[in-house]
Amino acid sequence: GGGTLHCLNRSVSAGAAILMAAPLGLSAALVSLNGLSVRYSPEERAVARYAHLDQERSYRGGTCFIADYSDRYERSRCLPVRGDKPLVLLVGDSYAAHLWPGLSTLAGRYDLAQANLVGCTPVIYPGDDGKVCERFFRSILTRWVPDNQPDAVLLAGRWHQRDLGLLRQTLADPRLAGTQLILIGPPPQYTTALPRLLVAAERRDEPTLPARFADPNVKIVDGELRRIAQAAGVPYVSLVEKLCRQGSCRVWAQEGVPLQFDDGHFSELGSKEIMHLVEPDLAPLIARGRASRAR
Fold first, then answer.
1. Where are the beta strands (DSSP E) in the chain?
2. What is the pTM of this model?
3. Which of 90, 148, 85 minimizes the C-alpha distance to 111?
4. From CA 122, how far away is CA 183, in angstroms rounded?
5. Tens digits of per-residue pLDDT, 125-154?
6. Rounded to the nearest 5°, which phi and psi values hold at 271?
7. Within 13 Å, how many C-alpha atoms sit on residue 46's CB side?
């Protein structure tokens, strides 16, 4: 699943095996960023600090996004009763939660519900038991969604090959038949924290450096998710398609602010930028869901 965000601010040493394969100068540059040595400019230090900033608060961590199982999910706050506006549910792990800062900018147009928990992806797990996250997503998708009939459900997560069989079954589940599901693909991901790569790229004057450390599996999973969604008749939003062109992906939310703060999760501003890119795709789908529900 998404893994807890506390663990997502990994030290560079977690990527040591990968970095051993990198040119020695890059390894040194990345490792020294941990100490933010005085040799770095204020701008470089500001960028590198994004790898240590707590982005969880902007994801509504501890209330509607549960990264620590000792926190309590606040159903009354996170799953509002239907008002006059279209009701949109964001469901998934931390790779759904990182869309929340952007989605929340649309609160004037939509009633927004959020059900985010780390540990597994948002599918209907078989049986009645299982891990905490399996029971949580089963309850949201098989009880809350049919009972409350949101106009759209955004399914997002850190999808792996092993999830795809259950995802196919979930998209075809009769309990979700009347619901406008929208499947959201993975963002570009890296083998170490993007802010560190950006500083190393700046120091070495190699703007293409982050692309060399991109995770190639993301593109494969993105393609598989698209095919699964197509076969199920479910709209698919590819974040890779929105952010990447000819092998290189967007890395800045704006000048000096990385799009992602670790190896994949959007910074608060990055989330708002990605929502600006995907909202034109979402708006007609949400309207379609609302129209079909009204019939």
1. 65-66, 87-92, 111-117, 152-156, 181-184, 236-237, 244-245, 248-249, 252-254, 257-258
2. 0.86
3. 85
4. 10
5. 999 889 999 999 999 999 999 999 999 999
6. -65, -40
7. 7
